[in-house]
Amino acid sequence: MQPDWILSDDFVPYDRAIAEMEARVAAIRNGAANEAIWLLEHPPLYTAGTSARLADLREPDRFPVFEARRGGQYTYHGPGQRVVYTMLDVGARGRDVRAFVQALEAWVIDALAEFGLRGVIRPGRVGVWIERPDKPPLPDGTPHDDKIAAIGIRLTKWVSFHGLSINVEPDLSHFDGIVPCGISGHGVTSLVDLGLPVTIGDLDDALRRTFLRHFA
To answer: From CA 127, how far away is CA 107, in angstroms rounded?
Structure first.
């Protein structure tokens, strides 16, 4: 069954988003609400996941910093980036957290493929990456990748929240204030940075079309 798809046109303050997600997750657990996918943008901010290292916050005074209580490290959110909060019943889907994260990754990859873009997964690096053979390799010879989507979830009694973010056309310089997801050497990219004339609305349509391939 399709979840409720919620679209916010205005920027949503981070603390308000957390409060509304927590209320919706509680209602889902109690059988009082359907699962939900919330599509939104935040004003510029940094979030710290449960594994965040203070040394990775390079510019602590640049934007507001929020403790996210999700998995992962530091992440940037801001205009031009589609945030997708996934409030889904993982318990009803086999109680396999790793499989759930892999389904989120595969969903993003399928949505990007709608625009002819090949997203990849890298062992030890959460999220979705784009191979950049046009850029020089890292000093150890590792090929250069740019991150296009971040993933970080939290579970409460087997209902998920937080979710993922996909870079459509954010100001990529805003990522300079952190070490994104604690990974140095590689970069960050977006659909528009890669030369694709894609809007956030286009991405939303692709996410809707590909959702049921991964979350029956």
So the answer is: 11
